[in-house]
Design a protein that fits this description.
The protein contains 18 helices and 18 strands. Helix content is 48%, strand content 21%. It folds into four domains: 125 residues, PAS domain (Beta-Lactamase, 2-Layer Sandwich), CATH 3.30.450; 118 residues, Beta-Lactamase, CATH 3.30.450.20; 90 residues, Orthogonal Bundle (Helix Hairpins); 150 residues, 2-Layer Sandwich (Heat Shock Protein 90), CATH 3.30.565.
């Protein structure tokens, strides 16, 4: 009875092997075939029926494949080398799968394992679809203008293009694949490939890079010693791996630096700021006097707006007239200076118009918020990168150590960027040389608090509430947080409240200025 049971089990096992969609072959210790299932003849249609193959050596079977035209020309061109590679799998410790390319375009993967009796079991699988899909993905990644990389669940680089490999000092993707993410980061810092990451030292950069890499979605900017700048975006995949994309933003950063330098130079060399401050103080007084009547307020608003528009327009027209009438007398430096003044007047005019349009929409409830899951910490670090050069030129230190990446809010990206930009712009503009600006983000229950503070001159405590109204100024001097168009803080407050948040200000004369914006938190 036990013998019959064994025979029945063996017959059932053989039948099961024949039903597999994988070819199964078994060889003895002399590499002679002792079994193959029916799927083997499906893979190699030119070979004799499987029963006639029993007793052939593995090498003889390989030669039959070549003679029958089954093997691609590229692999069959070197018969001896092809046979050697195939037989190499029948060695102890050689467990790496081998791909064989057939003449009809199919790809067969062979896996070999040692049996207890000293023979070999070889499994033959048609992996054509998988290999073609991988090849298409590799081609797309290789041709991308961005640097792409895919890491597996163990944080090992599984695929990348040459642009990504060269970022870490490798000659190509073939050298970088198989490296652990931590090894790549250490290589970048050890070989001084990174000049700075938003002003941070190499140790700080490693910590921030790991934080962005381990977050569900992270972003940061990196500048290389070659002068190139990249925006790094890092996101988790559904399978537990990571996908990383580097976008070249070198030209964008250079344009930003040039514009910031031009703005700084104009701000430091022109004496028009005092006249403008005096003008806005008078404008504010007229608005206060007209507040009792709605009709009078509208009339005054139109009148003051016409003056506010005329100021930059007069500068544009005046300097352009000079260039038209006296172009032959000006040297390159004079032309450059006047062109810069015209450009600055145009930028001031456009900024004022955009602020008024946004305030009008917000007041009327017609501003459409496009809410999304945003990383407020990343936006603070982006602002850090945008203003760091300007602050350094004034001897101001911007501290963003308390602005962690991964601080998510449910908000409109343009609105949050505008809020942070206005607050940091004010802080850098009105903080004296040797001062300090601090950026901070923290989650407090259901809200995220974004704080921008400085140790500048501040404004009087009695003026804090009033400067949040349009076209208001704080103090009587020119070095307060309200010089300019007088709309920045009003716009910040309106955007925050449109999200269900708030803007709070703490300041006093000579005691600095702190602005705190609350926005709804997001998991």
């Amino acid at each position: 009875m036990p013998v019959q049971d064994d025979d029945t089990a063996t017959a059932a096992l053989v039948e099961a092997l024949h039903c597999l969609r994988v070819a199964v072959t078994v060889f003895d210790a002399d590499e002679r075939l002792i079994f193959c299932n029916q799927h083997f003849n499906y893979l190699f249609r030119s070979l004799p029926e499987r029963g006639t193959l029993i007793g052939l050596t593995y090498e003889e079977m390989i030669k039959l494949e070549i003679a029958g035209g089954e093997i691609s020309r590229a692999e069959a061109a070197d018969v001896a080398g092809f046979i050697t590679r195939r037989r190499a799998q029948f060695r102890i410790g050689e467990y790496k799968p081998l791909d064989v390319h057939l003449s009809d375009g199919r790809v067969v993967e062979i896996k070999a394992r040692r049996t207890r009796q000293g023979g070999w079991i070889a499994l033959w699988t048609d992996v054509t679809a998988a290999r073609h899909a991988q090849s298409r993905l590799e081609d797309a990644v290789a041709l991308s203008a961005d640097a792409f990389a895919f890491f597996d669940q163990n944080d090992v680089l599984a695929m990348c293009n040459d642009r990504y490999a060269r970022f870490y000092g490798h000659a190509g993707a073939h050298e970088a694949v198989g490296s652990h993410f931590g090894e790549l980061i250490e290589r970048a810092t050890a070989e001084s490939l990174v000049a700075r990451i938003e002003g941070a030292a190499s140790e700080e950069w490693r910590a921030k890079r790991h934080a962005a890499h381990n977050a569900p979605a992270g972003a940061m900017t990196v500048e290389l010693t070659t002068g190139e700048a990249y925006l790094l975006r890092d996101r988790a995949t559904a399978e537990g791996g990571r996908v990383v994309v580097f976008t070249d933003v070198t030209d964008h950063r250079r344009v930003e630096a040039a514009l910031e330098e031009q703005t700084r130079a104009l701000a430091e060399t022109r004496s028009a700021a005092a006249a403008q401050a005096s003008y806005l103080a008078d404008l504010n007084k007229r608005f206060d006097e007209a507040a009792a009547s709605a009709d009078t307020t509208k009339t005054t608003l139109m009148r003051t707006m016409s003056h506010e528009l005329k100021t930059p327009l007069n500068a544009i027209i005046g300097f352009s007239d000079l260039m038209l009438s006296m172009a032959d007398r000006f040297g390159p430096d004079q032309v450059k200076e006047y062109a810069g003044l015209i450009h600055e007047g145009g930028r001031n005019l456009l900024r004022l118009i955009n602020q008024i349009l946004d305030l009008t929409k917000l007041s009327a409830g017609r501003y459409e918020l496009r809410r999304a899951r945003l990383d407020a910490g990343a936006i603070l670090w982006t602002a850090y990168g945008a203003f760091e050069a300007r602050a350094s030129a004034k001897g101001i230190v911007i501290d963003a150590d308390r602005a962690p990446v991964g601080l998510f809010v449910d908000a409109d990206e343009t609105a949050v960027q505008t809020i942070v930009h206005h607050l940091v712009d004010n802080a850098v503009a009105f903080t004296p040389a040797g001062g300090r600006v601090a950026l901070e983000g923290v989650r407090d229950g259901e809200v995220v608090r974004i704080t921008v503070s400085d140790d500048g001159p501040g404004v009087a405590a009695d003026d804090v509430e009033r400067i949040l109204r349009p076209f208001e100024q704080g103090g009587r001097g020119t070095a307060d947080h309200t010089s300019g168009g007088g709309l920045g803080l009003t716009l910040v407050k309106a955007f925050a409240e449109a999200h269900g948040g708030s803007l709070g200000i703490a300041s006093d004369t000579g005691k600095g200025f702190t602005a705190v914006v609350t926005l709804p938190a997001c998991a």
